[in-house]
Amino acid sequence: MAPLRRLDGVRIFEQLAIADPVIAAYLSIHNMCAWMIDSYGTEEQRKTWVPQLAPMTAVASYCLTEPGAGSDASALSTRAVRSGPDRTQITCSTASSSSSPAPGSRTCMW
């Protein structure tokens, strides 16, 4: 099966938003986070999360807002620094997180 074209995805989300903007935003955020993990995550992260995110047995959210920055991604002060061969330390202060109360399923953007 051919992958869904971006235009088709836009049309689907547009129709979802007509019916319920909250559901459309919720699914859009979930899909964006799943795509980021699948595209940029480690093999271990992909093996752990993609099988849970695809059927939505786990729901992804993202951390973007910070005190003083709001949702302006260019004003974020979050920093990620390698602290070992397989470790990254993230320093941040999140004002809110979309969709998920569970810290284990948040995607941090920096």
TrEMBL record:
Residues of the Acyl-CoA dehydrogenase/oxidase N-terminal domain: 6-54
MF GO annotations: acyl-CoA dehydrogenase activity; flavin adenine dinucleotide binding
Region (Disordered): 84-110
InterPro entries per UniProt: Acyl-CoA_DH_CS (IPR006089), Acyl-CoA_Oxase/DH_mid-dom_sf (IPR046373), AcylCoA_DH/ox_N (IPR013786), AcylCoA_DH/ox_N_sf (IPR037069), AcylCoA_DH/oxidase_NM_dom_sf (IPR009100), Mito_Isobutyryl-CoADH (IPR052547)
Gene3D superfamilies recorded: Acyl-CoA dehydrogenase/oxidase, N-terminal domain (1.10.540.10), Butyryl-CoA Dehydrogenase, subunit A, domain 2 (2.40.110.10)
Compositionally biased spans, kind Low complexity: 93-110
Protein name: Acyl-CoA dehydrogenase/oxidase N-terminal domain-containing protein
UniProt source species: Mycolicibacter senuensis
